[in-house]
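Hi F.,

I've been meaning to write this up properly since the lab meeting, where we talked about keeping a consistent format for the predictions we share between groups. The idea is simple: the sequence comes first, exactly as it goes in, then the structure tokens exactly as they come out, then a line or two of notes. No screenshots and no reformatting. I'm using this chain as the first example so we have something concrete to point to.
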Amino acid sequence: MLKEEKHVGVLGAPNYPAPVPPTVINIRSETSVPDHIVWSLFNSLFLNVCCLGFVAFAYSVKSRDRKMVGDILGAQSYASTAKCLNVCALVLGILGTIGVIVLLGVGHVAVYQMVSEFMKKNRGY
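Output, unedited:
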């Protein structure tokens, strides 16, 4: 038997003088306030119509700051403003994208007609 094994065998089970108290973690049951920071970041990077996405991102950060301080009403107010700005940026971005696609389609057709008429006039048809 090795020296370390003998020493461990002599120690035996640990003897506690008193029972160990359980660890209790108290979690506050406050309302969860969504700060919409990911949505605001998406809108500020991709659909930043009239800088609405950037302003929504600023309000989302303010909402997160208020939540960390413990001001739930302030956090809800800033989060509500950020949500409204995000919805506006998203709707305007989608409408703008659809408008650009329609204009490109109409422009393509108009240019095709102009070129075909020009070709007909030059050939003498």
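Notes:
Residues 72-123 form the longest helix (52 residues).
Helices lie at 3-11, 37-46, 52-69, 72-123.

If this format works for you, I'll send the rest the same way.

G.
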